[in-house]
Write a structure and sequence with these properties.
The complex is a heterodimer of chains A (196) and B (169). With 196 residues, chain A is mainly alpha-helical. Helix content of chain A is 61%, strand content 0%. Chain B is mostly helical and 169 residues long. The longest helix of chain B has 20 residues. Classes of the chains: A mainly alpha (196), B mainly alpha (169).
Chain lengths: 196, 169
Amino acid sequence: MNPLGREELFSAFLDGELTTKEAKFVNEILAGEEEAMEEFHGIQQVRKALRMLPDLEIPGWLLPDGHLGEQLSSYLDGELSAAEQRRVSDHVIGCADCRAELHDLDRARIAVRSLPGVETGQFDQIPVIPRSRRRRAVAVGSIGIAAAVAVILGLAFGGQQQPTISLDDLTTQHIARASAEPGFAVFPAGIEISAP
Amino acid sequence: MADEFTPSWEDVAQRYGRKIYNFAYRLTGNPDDAADLVQEVLLRVRKGLSGYRPGSFEGWLWRITRNAFLDGVRRKSRRPETTLPEGDHHALGSSPSPDEVLASVRLSDNVQAALLKLPYAFREAVVLCDVVGLTYDEIADATDIPVGTVRSRIHRGRKMLRGLLTWPV
């Protein structure tokens, strides 16, 4: 048997794939040849490292009862890769639960993003990095995503009247409460605002 | 494994989805490609189950998986991408110490990077044996090559890895 053929028995020996006769032959080689033993230990070490590779968890949404979870927010924000976006779109179209969750998340996201800007007054000097520079690439992709979301949500909830949050009402209530309650603070206790 | 009954595709997804995902991830080092493969395999299983005749179900499944993988490789061959291992950030486990985690991540990153350098035939044989856990006979069945060739590929693959890995890791 040529040396490579002999060595091949080492892997098969470790994997329990040899006949009794072959295993006996390997034992004899290992007992009598230091070089063969060194080769055997090298293969054993590699095999161990391979088998110690972590057993990766399959993304839940790939399974029949799996849902998208936090991927939905990333999807709305345009933070997924093109392949992930496509997969999320495909899943949402066929999954009522994820469509409903996407709809709720989208409403919450719109409400938060519609909050009025704070009057900065003396903080006007603070430099602000233009949003368009920070996320230009994402913004371009978001146009497509927003359109896809609109289509998906339109398909799922078309014709339903969703309750809307009036920000003007909220602001008016807040001002009225602040006027009526001298102790009512915009910022939580313990936070002091000072000039820069 | 000789099965008496034909499982539903949902059963296949639950029982084998993770193995297929790990197989694909170790071959590509890319979670997107791994997820694509799982979807493609489950689609093919769904279509093919009606024509499946009870026998070696795992052999049938891994042939589908392998063919789906190779089809994907062929599709991408016109626009090759560099696939870099992203680390095993979504691996399961208990709560090892930070040092153990770092050592484990370093080791698995090294092994993953080395795996990607192997020629496909050797990588496939090693992954099916050491990651998926198939026997030599099952690998021969799935890849349609003689058992002797499987044995040779596994050993030569490990030998190549030994040369690629830096020890101690």
